[in-house]
């Protein structure tokens, strides 16, 4: 049962005493009706048959690529991954972790900025080997439509991203340079 697995992982990994974010690998289906896999083996079979994909594989692979799905396929223990630009995994964290930056409401950069902040605070990013989630198809949100159609919206988001980088630099000094350098090299 998923909640038992998460609770067990939290205890085994000593999450209450450790700065770690447990990454739940994300997948998606293009089908509106799906029998949810009961195990990792069943999920892998569905992945191989093409009824599931790694999350946003077709449109935004950078968002979840650092999860290292190839490694996850055979992993039996949690493994550590490194932050990379645009990484936006789904995570299980302690309640006292940094909060989402409230500048990023609507569509764009809420999870990306959160993971950057966790990384800046030296949280370990640990992928759970037997956890997974599946995103189901739905109509586009109002906010993603605004992002796609409005240059003004995208411009505002860019300004907020720059402010966020400046704040990271103030809080974490030279350690935050890697985020800005990565952003500029994209």
Domain count, please report it: 1
Count every helix, treating DSSP H or I runs of 4 or more residues as helices.
Answer: 7
End-to-end separation in angstroms reads 40 Å
The shape is globular
Mean pLDDT: 88
Describe this structure in words.
The structure is a single chain. With 186 residues, this protein is α/β, with parallel strands linked by helices. The protein has one domain. The protein contains seven helices and seven strands. A four-stranded mixed β-sheet has the order 4-6-1-5, with helices on one face. The model has no long low-confidence stretch (mean pLDDT 88).
Give a short summary of the structure.
It is found in: Membrane. The protein has 186 residues and is an alpha/beta fold.
